[in-house]
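Entry type: protein chain
Record version: 2
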Amino acid sequence: MCDQPMPERGLLQLQGVHTHIGHYHILHGVDLTVPEGELTVLLGRNGAGKTTTLRTIMGLWRASAGTITFDNADLTALPTPDIARRGIAYVPETMGIFTQLTVRENMLLATATGRFDTSRLDAVFALFPVLKQKWQDAAGSLSGGQKQMLAISRAIVEERRLLVVDEPTKGLAPAVIEHLIDGFRELKATRTTILLVEQNFHMARSLGDQVAVMDDGRIVHTGRMQELAEDEALQARLLGLSLAAHQ
């Protein structure tokens, strides 16, 4: 049972979602609401089902039961390209960049028309100026943090209604993480809706509006991020740690 209900309506809603991968039953009736214009953090221990949830939303793995709706339209049976065309961008944990292509070419592949919207591109460069400096460099030559910035930038180079982002800070240095936090703050200021899986609790606390906690393929807590951040006993019960230790 969840401790606190999420808002009744949201831009994205999962209701009773189950996912099987081969013989393994990974998600066990996930209920999740992502409110429009907010950043929702999905937390949980390793193996709780967070990445499976994101991949199921994107149609990369098919829900075996339940429904996934986006702006009241049913996504559950749609193929991934059709889901993306609804205005949903996915940044996987692996980043998925093409290392042999330049930064420019990676970004161009993310456009629907093969042309850049100059104002959108300027906004991306304002968030991550280093990408303008590296514009003609091979993506494989970038640092880990720069590759993550490129992965996020591809997701926003055209207008999206929802960003689905899986552990963007994994393996990055603290200074780079702070840069990413600043970038996500700028995105939040535009009222971009974001669903973020993140193990860095400093980032989660800094950015989250809503929070959902997963355990064993189920959502076991939902509520405001600030309330979880201020309740160390609840953190320990749900996550086995204190957010205060990850400042």
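Comment: The chain has a mean pLDDT of 92.
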